[in-house]
Amino acid sequence: MAAAAISTISMIDSNMEVDKLTYEIFSILENKFLFGYDNDPKLSSACVDNLNFSTPKKNVPAGKIRILSIDGGGSTNGILAAKSLTHLETTLRRITGKKNTHIADFFDVVAGSGTGGILATLLFTRGKDGVPLFTAEEALKFLIENNRKISRSSSNGVLQRVFRPPVKVFGKVFGDLTLKETVKAVLIPCYDLTTRSPFLFSRADALEMDGCDFKLSDVCGATIADRTVEVKSVDGRRKITAVGGGVTMNNPTAAAITHVLNNKQEFPFANSVEDLLVISLGNGESDSGTGNMTSSPAAFVKIAGDGAADMVDQAVSMAFGEFRNNNYVRVQGNEIIGKKQHMIKDEKMRKSIVIAEEMLKQKNVESILFQGKKLVEKTNLDKLEIFAGELIKEEEMRKNSILSPVVLKQSPSSPRTSSATTLSTISSC
């Protein structure tokens, strides 16, 4: 009996010590991160003796939120962005030495419009084994092989029209998977004719609010639609009449940045552009040509989309100010290469691949607000290489941080990802 009593007392003392340790650790975190205290509170000696992990390095910043933004189809039908992502993923694998690296491993947020939305969904949807469904190379192959099914050109080759939602194409890939099954924060726009306003399909909203979770096959169909499609939420509480994201948000970079800076539950330490690391991928400028700009309403739509995308680029570039050289990169073709108007569909796709490869070799273009653009010495490929280095640097820095800069809510039905950016089930906005 005496031995049992001693054992019980010992267990109580041990539990009290653990509780004391837990209380002191959370007190430090609360002081340091919630209230910004600069003093360095110390653990008691008893707690230090029981501490089984090494103390994190002092004064290590929380880190930058890594944002990937992908434009709508452009003159290359999404191939330029897909090629850019393939090169980026290959570079990340080469530098890290990890052959199973996915694009989603190195980003916290993805926004994609039109064909860019398809790429985002392919690359950031969770598969049965917990890893993303597609690599960048596989996503590129998907666009090439399914281009005929996804879209058809009008007779003048100017406007890409989706005559009916390619439900079978996307349904075969995603099945009944919904926004909740994406591995990181996902934003995909369309325009809702019911409310006459832009609509963002959002992972955070899907997990937090009724009527906001949609099948991924429907999301893809909505963001590329040139004719109205009706889309219902999984619970049937919301119905939207959608046309493609390119109509209202061909370049979704600003939407992604706004989402991060205003979402303190998932991105608690992101306060300004200094805390962001952003890459925006274009898909080649419109091939409408100035001589044909008044030839049809379709030409105006394309030109308007390009103009809006450029304005977003210029505004974002200026918003980053002194940080834009390191924290913001835009990859875009700086001129039209070749003509596609009189080719059959397969020839156009092959031409798009060649054009995209040539565009990646072009000198990179930086925007100057209301003053046009300027060429820099580095090519688009060079910029992708440099950005890969920044992504890896950020990943390494997070290993020494006391807290991750990202806290994503997890779907109850989904397995936990091993990503360093997923910490708990704190609610998202």
TrEMBL record:
Keywords: Hydrolase, Lipid degradation, Lipid metabolism. It holds the Pfam family Patatin. Signal peptide: none annotated. GO terms for biological process: lipid catabolic process. GO terms for molecular function: hydrolase activity. Residues 69-257 form the PNPLA domain. Transmembrane segments: none annotated. Residues 408-429 are annotated as: Disordered. Residues 411-429 have a biased composition (Low complexity). Gene3D superfamilies: Cytosolic phospholipase A2 catalytic domain (3.40.1090.10). Its EC number is 3.1.1.-. InterPro entries: Acyl_Trfase/lysoPLipase, PNPLA_dom. Lipolytic acyl hydrolase (LAH). The nitrogen atoms of the two glycine residues in the GGXR motif define the oxyanion hole, and stabilize the oxyanion that forms during the nucleophilic attack by the catalytic serine during substrate cleavage. Belongs to the patatin family. This is Patatin. It comes from Solanum tuberosum.
